[in-house]
Amino acid sequence: MSVPDKVQGVIDARRERVDELDARIVELLQLRVKVSEEIQRKRMNSGGTRSDLFRESVVLRRYQDAFPEAGTALGTEVLRLCRSKTPHPKLQHIPKDR
User: Fold this and answer.
1) So where are the chain's domains?
2) pLDDT tens profile 54-68
3) CA 30 from chain center: how many Å?
4) Rounded to 5, what percent of the chain is helix, strand, coil?
5) pLDDT greater than 50 at residue 94
6) d(CA 91, CA 55)
7) Cβ(44)–Cβ(88) below 8 Å
8) pLDDT at 88 > cutoff 60
9) What is the pLDDT of residue 50?
10) Which of 8, 12, 31, 98 is least surrounded by Cβ atoms within 10 Å, i.e. has the fewest?
11) What is the rounded distance in angstroms from the CA atom of residue 30 to the CA atom of residue 40?
12) Which residues of 66-98 are buried (b: 16+ CB within 10 A; e: fewer)?
């Protein structure tokens, strides 16, 4: 089904806006990954754990409050994305084949 040119123009403009917003979201997520990795590195280097489960529950609640239907899944994926892949300093000497 074809839409009138005027309507298609509005749709195209709104899609461009969505693309701009998506680019900003990706940029912010990339920055969040870097900041989270820094936090994790500092915590692990001072003898702490990679994750702070209380803090993760606070973050997850924020997503649940903002997006009641999808917040848990969205927040969980953001947290998963931001968990560092760097081995814990105490485990770096252990060969990977073990």
Assistant:
1) 5-88
2) 999 999 999 999 999
3) 8
4) 70, 0, 30
5) no
6) 23
7) yes
8) no
9) 85
10) 98
11) 15
12) eeeeebeeebeebbeebebeeeeeeeeeeeeee
